[in-house]
Amino acid sequence: AQTVTQSQPEMSVQEAETVTLSCTYDTSESDYYLFWYKQPPSRQMILVIRQEAYKQQNATENRFSVNFQKAAKSFSLKISDSQLGDAAMYFCAYRTDNNDMRFGAGTRLTVKP
Amino acid sequence: DTGVSQDPRHKITKRGQNVTFRCDPISEHNRLYWYRQTLGQGPEFLTYFQNEAQLEKSRLLSDRFSAERPKGSFSTLEIQRTEQGDSAMYLCASSLWREATDTQYFGPGTRLTVL
Prior knowledge:
The complex is a heterodimer of chains A (113) and B (115). By secondary structure, chain A is mainly beta. Chain A contains no helices and twelve strands. Chain A has strands spanning 3-5, 10-14, 19-21, 24-26, 33-39, 46-52, 60-61, 64-69, 74-79, 88-95, 101-103, 107-112. In chain A, the strands form three sheets. In chain A, strands 2, 5, 6, 10, 11 and 12 form a six-stranded mixed β-sheet that branches. In chain A, strands 3-9-8-7 form a four-stranded antiparallel β-sheet, with no helix packed on it. Chain A has a two-stranded antiparallel sheet with strand order 1-4. Chain A is globular and about 40 Å long. Chain A starts with a strand and ends with a strand. Chain B is mostly beta strands. In chain B, strands 2, 4, 5, 6, 9, 10 and 11 form a seven-stranded mixed β-sheet that branches. In chain B, a hairpin with a 6-residue loop joins strand 7 and strand 8.
């Protein structure tokens, strides 16, 4: 069964600094998709970035980038130039062959002014 | 607003009552997903539809839960004989399934409290 592990329940970063959120997953599949979602307090989940496993190039979306290490089954999210609006729960997710998403338990990111 | 919408946003009910939630996906999306999220956890998959067909159900979806998407547009999730353990946020997501690319967009959720 596919599982997703986020080992950092909470992280904190100073405004304008860089922070990296960790995610590991377990799968026997070779082709799959990985996602990072952001869930601000009392607000809906928003897609941050996605990565196709067959692509070697790491995905990037503005200040957000991933470090995808397929062999290590690692998928970390780097947030550069952190802003106050980045404060949220961040969920790493894996899309299975059955097309359902498996989510990690989340990392709560605090941004200090 | 053309995003995913859910109704109601909050529901308080007494144990043993039935509740029904509605989800309206993004209009051109052919897939619709239901998830349950408890406090401090990530969402857990419940079921999904492609058009009106229910293609996958999690073992989390007990016999008291039923979901429908009769015309391939909006969907309903009904919980019969609610229990306190059903208290959670119920999230709906939709996606456009095309050539194996499938990014899910989430609604704001329905928060259920069972007293």
